[in-house]
């Protein structure tokens, strides 16, 4: 099956016209994304996410490398590439000359969608914009403007939807609504490429995740593998009394003692830490354990670990 994205050795260096200084935003990105995926591209500010997406959208010119979207080469077939994708850019740009409905009609026309094939009402309804159809976009709130951007990205029924930080500045209720709709699109077969720095969102929504830092991909796997391979579970032991000295039997397990002095935490490394051994060691030392619990690592922990490393 044709891949949704096939990106090889993609590089981008910005050059300031004023100072003539160069800035490498992408240092050779290789990324394949399968059709039907709900893919998360995560990374700190300035990592290069928007640069990559804007290159795909035809808004930024790459320095070198190859970009295939839906099998269409950005260099040779940009028109078919554009028809395959709907893009919701990070920057909110609104056309002030049309009302909401006219905006969508205009965009559909731009993509050559015939009147009878247009889905303007359906899209307005899906994004809760029906009662705003006659509004000038300038009158819309920030969250509604973003909904309009998403609506615009959908007029030509694209196979791939690209969302660059779509929920920045959007309230919680709207976020939930938006994700319900995007999830539904994905269920029906639309490939989703999402950048976000809300890691909880990515953890809930995405099936595959790549982490980008300083213009390079530093991790790329299924969400479950990332959580399994990079996520460590902490073991937390509570004691009845303050511990004055860490028992020698458990020194090998890198114990971290709490400020209160009655909790010891262990972060297991590569399965070499055996809870049984730890507990046996403590019992041998005569300390009294009152509680054992574990702390699950989440995407945020993994992200921090990878990005700081
Ligand atoms: N038009 C531009 N001119 C010069 N530098 C840019 C331009 N756009 C982005 N950059 C730089 O490229 C790097 C990547 O930015 P960007 O792709 O926006 O990152 P992200 O979307 O991950 O926050 C940053 O260091 C940013 O300052
Ligand atoms: Mg960005």
What can you tell me about this protein's structure?
The chain is an alpha/beta fold and 309 residues long. It has two domains: 5-225, P-loop containing nucleotide triphosphate hydrolases (Rossmann fold); 231-308, Alpha-Beta Plaits. It has helices spanning 49-56, 78-84, 100-110, 120-126, 142-154, 172-187, 199-205, 223-230, 275-285, 299-308, and strands spanning 5-15, 22-33, 38-42, 64-69, 72-73, 85-88, 160-164, 191-195, 208-213, 216-222, 234-239, 256-257, 263-266, 289-295. It has a six-stranded mixed β-sheet, with helices on both faces. The longest helix has 16 residues, at 172-187. The chain is elongated. 33% of the residues are buried. The model has no long low-confidence stretch (mean pLDDT 89). It binds adenosine-5'-diphosphate and magnesium ion. Residues 49-50, 90, 164-165 line the site of magnesium ion.
List keywords for this structure.
309 residues; alpha/beta; Rossmann fold; Alpha-Beta Plaits; 2 domains; 6-stranded mixed sheet; 4-stranded antiparallel sheet; 10 helices; 14 strands; 27% strand; elongated; binds adenosine-5'-diphosphate; binds magnesium ion
Describe the structure concisely for a colleague.
This protein is of the alpha/beta class and about 300 residues long. It folds into two domains: about 5-225, Rossmann fold (3-Layer(aba) Sandwich), CATH 3.40.50.300; about 230-309, 2-Layer Sandwich (Alpha-Beta Plaits), CATH 3.30.70.
Please report which band the strand proportion falls in: under 5%, 5-15%, 15-25%, 25-35%, 35-45% or over 45%.
Answer: 25-35%
Task: Give the helix level as a range of percent.
Answer: 25-40%
Would you identify the CATH H-level superfamily of the largest domain? P-loop containing nucleotide triphosphate hydrolases
Count of beta strands: 14
Sheet having the most strands: 6 strands, mixed
